[in-house]
Design goal:
The chain contains nine helices and twelve strands. It is of the alpha/beta class and 275 residues long. The chain folds into two domains: 52 residues, Spermidine Synthase, Chain: A, domain 2; 217 residues, Vaccinia Virus protein VP39 (Rossmann fold, 3-Layer(aba) Sandwich), CATH 3.40.50.150. Strands 8-7-6-9-10-12-11 form a seven-stranded mixed β-sheet. A five-stranded antiparallel β-sheet has the order 1-2-3-4-5. Strand 11 and strand 12 form a beta hairpin. Helix 6 packs across helix 7. Bound molecules: S-adenosylmethionine.
């Protein structure tokens, strides 16, 4: 018998993957969690019926949410990740020799636990000596820290449930206060095809707080529409002014110095969202 997993990305469209095994399912304090084997994308982490990450395409999201801000900053030493319990963003941060400390603040300890057990390729840096893992609400954590981080990355689920407040203007204000005077913030901001209003709103909010606001995009096959966006707020450094000759070679599969700036060149319909 064939078994297929479907995520309805909108009420009228979905992604369907043939599955061969279910490793884990549980209802945590915050969400429905599942870890399944898919034929096309390998092991897949699913939260509340939504694909979070897969072995085959995780590199795109994790590299792009990390290396664009870290290489835009001249010397990132202390980095905070809100969400990101699978550990992929932390794995990429740790590749930067300048980083002295990477803090993860994930609300759901079960995501960390299951990722450590079933996604070792992604979660492998969570035990690194430079990494501090906090289980708790990222909103509370950010409000309790001032002038401390060089980079803050919001690696969240969609803006529902515990992640709803991670897309609010008050949260971005608190992020700005938790950053040092030359700090950079990046958040995943959903699909330019399916979440236009959200992208517009986040960009407007970020622009009202940070002197530099930028939107960039990349292709991620398992995320809604296959085309994803990130919004950056920066106090001092503009990614478009990065001297790409200072970008060192790293063990990456998507990010490279040639795309550091080109990802900010937006298709017209996306540029229109942030005009
Ligand atoms: N790459 C993924 C995506 O875009 O679909 C996100 C991956 S990561 C698994 C998202 C994490 O954010 C989840 O594990 C979830 O528990 C966490 N999260 C949601 N709301 C949070 C909050 N308020 N504070 C900290 N973590 C939160």
């Amino acid at each position: 018998m064939e078994l297929w997993y479907t995520e309805f990305q909108t009420p009228a469209v979905g992604i369907t993957c043939k599955t061969s095994k279910t490793y884990h399912t549980e209802k945590t304090q915050y969400q429905d969690l599942a870890l399944i084997e898919t034929e096309q994308f390998g092991r897949m982490l699913v939260l509340d019926g939504t694909v979070q990450t897969t072995i085959e395409d995780e590199f795109v999201y994790h590299e792009m949410i990390t290396h664009v801000p870290l290489f835009t900053h001249k010397n990132p030493k202390k980095v905070l990740v809100i969400g990101g319990g699978d550990g992929g963003t932390i794995r990429e941060i740790i590749k930067h020799p300048s980083v002295e400390k990477a803090v993860l603040c994930e609300i759901d300890e079960k995501v960390i636990e299951v990722s450590k057990k079933y996604l070792p390729e992604i979660s492998c840096a969570l035990g690194n000596e430079k990494v501090e893992v906090n289980v708790g609400d990222g909103i509370k954590y950010v409000h309790e820290h001032k002038n401390e981080f060089d980079i803050i990355i919001v690696d969240s689920t969609d803006p529902v449930g515990p992640a709803e407040g991670l897309f609010a203007v008050d949260f971005y204000k608190a992020i700005s206060e938790a950053l040092k005077e030359d700090g950079i913030f990046v958040a995943q901001t959903e699909s330019p095809f399916f979440h236009k209003d959200l992208i517009k709103k986040v960009y407007k909010d970020v622009k009202s707080i940070f002197p530099i606001a930028r939107l960039y995009t990349c292709a991620i096959p398992t995320y809604p529409s296959g085309y994803w966006s990130f919004t950056m707020g920066s106090k001092k450094y503009d990614p478009l002014e990065t001297d790409i000759n200072t970008i060192t070679d790293m063990d990456t599969k998507y990010y490279c110095k040639e795309i550091h700036k080109s990802v900010f060149a937006l298709p017209k319909f996306v540029a229109d969202l942030v005009k």
